[in-house]
Amino acid sequence: MAEQEPNLDVDVEIRAARTAVLSVGGELDMETAGGFEEHLTEQLRHGRCHLVLDLSDLAFMDSSGLNVLIRSVHRARDAGGDLRLAAPTPAVRRILEITGVTTTMPPHEGVAEALAAFGGAR
């Protein structure tokens, strides 16, 4: 199920009753952050609180995108799950590192590693 915002593509793959992988491509900025947050909210609403964000095709992210990530990780954790980041591009990884987000959400090399980090809680 692929959805498209103006400059952002989000593909959602349900992996288990409580687990989803969202592949994010394009630009996550002020223009697209609201729609992206709605994708994450929808997953949480359906009980999928173990979320992996595949950032391998995300070319750009600004503070609006960072704020969505931070709000969403708190909501996922409040629901008994977590939000994992996978394969961020060098530009996105740099933003995550500069802002200190990597201390609370360390990025994984790929989707498989991020899913494995959930352990048996899927």
Q: How does this structure look, described?
A:
The chain has 122 residues and is an alpha/beta fold. It has a single domain (2-116), classed as STAS domain (Transcription Regulator spoIIAA, 2-Layer Sandwich), CATH 3.30.750.24. Helix content is 39%, strand content 33%. The chain has five helices and five strands. It has helices at 33-45, 63-78, 90-98, 101-104, 111-116; strands spanning 2-5, 8-16, 19-28, 50-61, 82-86. It has a five-stranded mixed sheet. α1 runs parallel beside α2. The longest helix has 16 residues, at 63-78. The two termini are 21 Å apart. It comes from Streptomyces omiyaensis.
Layout of helices and strands:
Blueprint: E1 2-5, E2 8-16, E3 19-28, H1 33-45, E4 50-61, H2 63-78, E5 82-86, H3 90-98, H4 101-104, H5 111-116
Domain STAS: 21-118
Organism: Streptomyces omiyaensis
Protein name: Anti-sigma factor antagonist
Number of helices, counting only DSSP H or I runs of 4 residues or more: 5
The parts where pLDDT drops under 50 for at least 5 residues are none
Strand order of the biggest β-sheet: 1-2-3-4-5
Please count the beta strands (DSSP E, at least 2 residues each): 5
Count of discrete domains: 1
Order of helices and strands: EEEHEHEHHH
- Percent of residues in beta strands: 25-35%
Query: Structural class from helices and strands?
Result: alpha/beta
CATH domain class = Alpha Beta
CATH architectural group: 2-Layer Sandwich
The N- and C-terminal alpha carbons lie at a distance of: 21 Å
Rg, Cα atoms, Å: 13 Å
Fraction of residues in H or I helices: 25-40%
Average pLDDT, rounded to a whole number, is 93
Please summarize the sheet with the most strands.
Answer: 5 strands, mixed
- The name of the CATH topology is Transcription Regulator spoIIAA
CATH superfamily: STAS domain
Q: Name the overall outline.
A: globular
Domain STAS: 21-118
Family: Belongs to the anti-sigma-factor antagonist family.
InterPro entries: Anti-sigma_ant, STAS_dom, STAS_dom_sf
Protein name: Anti-sigma factor antagonist
